[in-house]
Amino acid sequence: MNAVEVPRPVMMRQTATISRILEYSLALCTVFVLASACRGLLPYTGYMFSALVFLVAVVLAGLRWGRGPVLMMAALCALVWNFFFIPPQYTLHIEKPQDMVMFVLFFLAALSMGHLTARVHEREQSAARHQRQTEAMLQVAQCSTQAPGASAGLKEALRAVSRITGARTTLIVSKDGKLADPPEDQREVAEWCHTKRQAAGRFTEHFPEARASWFPLGSDQRSLGVIGFHWERDALMDSHERELVEVLAVQLSLVLEKEKLIEAARQADILAESERLQRTLLDSVSHELKTPIAVIRTALDGLDSGDPWSGEIRTATMRLQRIVESFLEMTRMESGILTAQKDWCDAGDILNAAREPLEEELKNHPLRMEIAEDLPLLKLDGRLLAQALTNVLHNATCYTPPGTGIELSARVQEGSLVIRVRDHGPGLPAGEEERVFDKFHRAPGAPAGGTGLGLAIVRGFVRAQGGDVTARNHPDGGAEFTFTIPVETHPV
Amino acid sequence: VSTPQKVLIIDDEIQMRRLLRMVLEGRGFTVCEAEQGQQGLQEAAFHRPDAVLLDLGLPDMDGLTVLKRLREWSDVPVLILSVRNQEPVKVEALENGADDYVTKPFGTAELLARLTAILRRRYTQQSPVHTVGSLEVDVLHHEARLGGAALKLTPTEFALLKALTENAGRIVTQNQLIRQVWGPQQASQTEGLRVHINHLRRKLSENGPRIVNEPGIGYRLMEGA
Questions:
Q1: What's the whole-model pTM score?
Q2: Which residues have C-beta within 8 Å of that of residue A130, sequence separation ≥ 6?
Q3: How far apart are CA A233 and CA A335, in angstroms?
Q4: Which of A301, A344, A492 faces B108 most closely, judged by CB atoms?
Q5: How many residue pairs bridge chain A and chain B with CB atoms within 8 Å of each other?
Q6: pLDDT tens for residues A89-146?
């Protein structure tokens, strides 16, 4: 959902000017009609009666119309009464002093009546406006909560805003601090509104020539987007209308904020659920694959160990076990559920743990370890690093002729643990130094057996701790792998 | 020991149970089996085994739950059978009262060594002198001797060594060690633990027992080669 547009509802809106003009003309008509009627009744009622009729009319008008028309009507009534009713008729001259007093009193009464009733009327109107605002806010809130689904709530809220303001509305949400594709012709004003967090466009100080008015959504800290109102061509906006629109914008911001939170929570749920599922699946696959191997190994242990047939099965089983474990590690790594659990480690412990599973293989490849005397404690995931080193050492035992040695050195250098593993075999084929870490990649001419996963896992495990591993051919022959892992250290 | 020791196997794989039964009976144990957690708990109550082999992945309930229920009323030694890459689960099991673990697929020798170690623990903990190879730790007199010669240890090192010899051959998690040596408030002070273990290793030298680390889990005291 980038930009949501809601069309203008089909509804007649009387603009302010039209209603004002209408009130003035109605006031004129009323005075004319009343004057004619009273003029007809004058012989029977006397001119004081018509004064009362005019007063009542002014009061009634004050209850319906604005201050201007009512005051005009009061003045007009006073003049009409004077001219047509107070003797001598058809002059503005007043003969009797008591008529003079009456006229002045009438004028004052009509004016104050008009003024007072108009004030009551204004109060009523403002109360009605507030009610309308409250209702509008309530409507927006209700629409958004009652709608099923997350984005439907926003749509409903927007529809309510459209209904209340009578304008076609466009909502543009912001993504990563930028508006998600605003309409081309409105781009400049919408973006200005978005970045300055100020109203812009029609009826405002900025870009008043624009077709629509744009209001920012969101809090002072965070902009969530903008909302545009496309009013009718002849529409006008007074301060009350503007206030209403701004209130609605705030309300809409709340809805938008809520939707965002709901969406974020939902995403997090989905992620957690899929991670849990993956873990369960991996655990069960792991169990299924390893149980038969465990059965074979236990059964083999029960057989005569000198038997060459069982010896072959044992070798194959160990190989199968390594492959299964590689595949599972790779899957775990790629599914992203592998996280480094860093803790203080002793480098010697890690190297021993790395060497231990290869006891058999290392008999043919004497391993010389050179660990700096003053090596401090290191904060890293010892299990992952040990596993990575095991893989590299295992590779070395596989790809070098029996009898050749392997050298391993460890030191801390510029805040990083640097481990080098060097063999004395034929080295890596030229140009393969980087590709050996690719998944399923096997160097040309590599002996049978192996999946091409071992070194990919090594790199994955080392990178999971923020480090890296590289390979090269040592100038004096043999392949050399260098692990570099940034570590916190603690003196021993 | 005149009467044969009884081992309960709780594992859902029938082949695994059959093989373990053959291995154990060949070593003079009597064996009873259960294929589900609930059944395992009943068997444990009924047969009162001397040790339990518990698989963590059971069909009806999680092995950890079985362990917790079992620990409510029994302190029978429990050996966990788990697959790799469950280090956090292993640690949780160990801290909930499991005595040790073996990772599937395992070798028979490894399984039997672990089983023997956890069966021995009961007697070690009751005696005032723990003996591991050439090392003797006299808990009563606060003394340690290596090959007859007295070892000079700081109080912390002695407490560490005592905790390790009590559980000789058996894994002790980092947190268990830290709690035993520094008290329950000191959890996750692993750097201190590592430093003291290093000092202790140096004092035990080449011919004494080895303190073997299992990354991410803890330490195991092994008789010297």
A1: 0.65
A2: none
A3: 57
A4: A301
A5: 94
A6: 888 888 888 888 888 888 888 788 778 877 887 888 888 888 887 887 787 777 777 7
Q: Which range (A13-17, A336-340, A433-437) has the least confidence? A: A13-17
Q: pLDDT tens, B54-66? A: 998 888 888 899 9
Mutation choice for A interface testing from B14, B188, B190, B191 by most A CBs within 10 A = B191
Question: What token pair was written down for B190?
Answer: 């692993």
Residues of B in contact with A299 (CB under 8 A): 19
A259 touches chain B (CB under 8 A): no
**Taking 70 as the threshold, does the pLDDT of residue B97 lie above it?**
yes
The pLDDT of residue A3: 53
| Residue A211 to residues A101, A179, A233, Cα–Cα distance (Å) | 57, 19, 9
Distance CA A191, CA A395 (A): 58
Is this complex's ipTM strictly greater than 0.90?
no
Using the Cβ of B195 and the Cβ atoms of chain A, whether some distance falls under 8 Å is answered with: yes
Residues of A in contact with B23 (CB under 8 A): 298, 301-302
Give every CB contact of residue B169 below 8 A, 6+ residues apart in sequence: B113, B114, B116, B117, B120, B220, B221, B222, B223
- C-beta atoms of A344 and B57 within 8 A: no
Q: Are A199 and A222 in contact (CB under 8 A)?
A: no
User: Is-contact B37 B65, C-beta < 8 A?
Assistant: yes
